[in-house]
Amino acid sequence: MPSTTIHFVRHGKVENPDHLLYERLPGFHLSGSGVRMARATAQYIAQNPQLNTVTALYSSPLERTRETAGEILAQLNAQRAQRGQAPLSLIADDRLIEARNEFRGTRIGHGDGALWRQRNLRLVSNLWKPSWGETYAQIAQRVSDFADEKIQQYQGQQIIVVSHESPIWSYRHLLETGHPEHNMLMRHTALASVTSITYDCETGRVLSIDYADPAADVL
Asked: Which residue windows are coiled coil (predicted)?
C-alpha cells in the first residue's frame, strides 16, 4: 500500500517591533530568533532519516515562510550534494498562504490603530467561526486541495510544506474532527513546528498524524 507523507512546517518568529497583525502584508521577515528557530528545525529534518529523504519543498509565497524554507533547503541540499543527488528547489504555492484577515495592519495593544477599538471588535462575533476574513472552511479547503494533489503526485514519497499557523491547524482539525472550526486560542502549532501527515495514496485516508517541536528551546 503506497503512502505519501506531507510534513507541514510553521515558519519561525517574525520581526515585528510594532506588534502589528501583519497577515499577508509584505516586508515581514524572520527575526534573529526566528532564523535560529528555522535552523533548529532544518537541522532536525536533515538529521532525521525519516525526513531527510524528501523529494520536494513547497512554501507559502510570503517572506517569513520562504526564509524558513530557505534554511531547510540549505541543509537538505548539503546532504544531497554529499550523496551525489541533484539539489531541490523551493516551489511557492498560493494555496499555502496566510489566512485573509480584515485586521491586517492593526496593532495589538491600545491607542490609535489598535485592534481592540470598537470598530474592529464588531467584526468578532464568534472565535470558532471567523467573521473577520476567510472562514476556517475556506482555509482548510485550499490546503486540502493542495494536499490531495500532492498525495497523487508524490506517491510513495515525502515532501515538506512551509506554511502558517491557521492553514496548518485548520486543515489538521478538519482531518481529525471532520470540521475545520476551532477555538484559535487552542491551536497546537508552535513556531517552526512540524506536523507530519501520512496518507494512503489509493484512498486518501489519513494513516497517521505526528507532531514535533524542534525549536521549543530556541530563544
From this structure: none
